[in-house]
Design brief:
Blueprint (H helix, E strand, L loop, with lengths): L2 H13 L3 H20 L3 H33 L5 E2 L5 E2 L1 H7 L4 H11 L3 H13 L6 H18 L10 E6 L24 H6 L6 E11 L4 H10 L3 E9 L13 E9 L14 E3 L10 H10 L5 E4 L8 E4 L4
Parallel strand pairs: 3-4, 3-8, 5-7, 8-9
Antiparallel strand pairs: 1-2, 4-6, 5-6
């Protein structure tokens, strides 16, 4: 396929007036792509992948048009006039064209991708020397839809519900080297049972992400907190300090920031995923580096955030804790 044939195909797809025509282009391009793959013709495979995506996108546009026509002419009766002049439903039209409900839904999602973003994805894949992926485009669409649904949750009480939770629990340590170094001298602590019993589920959305600080001795207890709050552990980052601290086996110079999720919370976009090592100086007792909160803001800029056990309120966050 040369450039002229590619341009002609794109033009014909854009002019397609029925889902049958668009599906025909999608099927033919998929078959030709399979041949190109076997022939190790990368350029042809890339062109076929683009043609197929354009055809699926057009099929989605036409499928949406059927639905709009139903609403306009028949209200909730789901009847429209087909291109043959017959009275049929959208479901019947798709079935006659051999288009499953799931395929129609995927094509409609592709049709919902803004044109500039759609063309950008095709161009990016082309520059990388690989076929464009419907899966990648659809994953972005689904992520944006989930983020939009979580971005403005309705507050249910004075606190409201949040999708990003940041917590530094006041862990209670049973053993200290000297009484004057006891954590209780710095701030009130809580037992593991009391931390686990906090009604965190009442202030988080159905899908949420939790960033939970834990020192090495409290790692096992932190995992129990994650489970008690209804989250699932995913990964962690490490804060490397500039000064060494106490420790019975290793003198500690790091803390862990555990990441756990609830429901289908989207992952951060690749460009917003930070280094897993946070290098920052140690501040006042138990104070955490500002860089950690800044990273979380970059990871989830759209979502509402709350800091549990907050000691220093941060702009744009809801603060909850005895020192807030």
């Amino acid at each position: 396929m040369n450039l002229i044939h590619y341009d002609n195909a794109c033009r014909e797809i854009a002019l397609a007036t029925t889902v049958d025509e668009a599906k025909d282009w999608a099927d033919k391009s998929a078959a030709l792509r399979a041949y190109a793959r076997q022939a190790h013709n990368t350029e042809l495979e890339i062109q076929c992948a683009e043609i197929r995506l354009r055809a699926l996108r057009r099929m989605g546009e036409l499928s949406k048009a059927l639905e709009k026509a139903e609403a306009k002419f028949r209200g909730n009766q789901h009847e429209v006039t087909s291109h043959h002049g017959e009275v049929t439903s959208k479901a019947d039209t798709l079935r006659e064209a051999g288009i499953s409900t799931s395929s129609a839904h995927r094509s409609e999602l592709l049709a919902g991708v803004p044109e500039a973003e759609f063309e950008h994805e095709l161009a990016t894949a082309r520059d990388e020397g690989k076929p464009a992926s419907a899966k990648k485009l659809l994953s972005k669409v689904r992520r944006e839809a989930r983020i939009e649904a979580l971005a403005e949750p309705e507050p249910l009480d004075d606190i409201g519900r949040y999708s990003v939770l940041y917590a530094d629990p006041p862990w209670r340590y049973e053993h200290v080297e000297t009484e004057n170094r006891a954590i209780e001298n710095q701030y009130p602590t809580m037992s593991l049972e009391d931390i686990c019993a906090l009604p965190v589920s009442e202030i988080c959305t159905d899908a949420a992400v939790l960033f939970l600080w834990a020192t090495s001795p409290k790692l096992f207890e932190a995992m129990r907190v994650i489970e008690a709050w209804g989250f699932t552990y995913r990964t962690c980052a490490v804060w490397v300090k500039d000064k060494i601290g106490m420790g019975y086996y290793y003198r500690q110079r790091h803390e862990l920031l555990l990441v756990a999720t609830l429901g289908q919370i989207p992952v951060p976009l690749p460009a917003n995923r930070p280094d897993s090592v946070i290098e920052a100086p140690r501040g006042q007792h138990s104070a955490k580096p500002v860089l950690a909160a800044e990273q979380i803001e970059r990871m989830y800029p759209e979502l509402r955030k709350v800091e549990l056990f907050c000691r220093s309120p941060r702009e744009g966050w809801r603060a909850w804790g005895n020192q807030a």
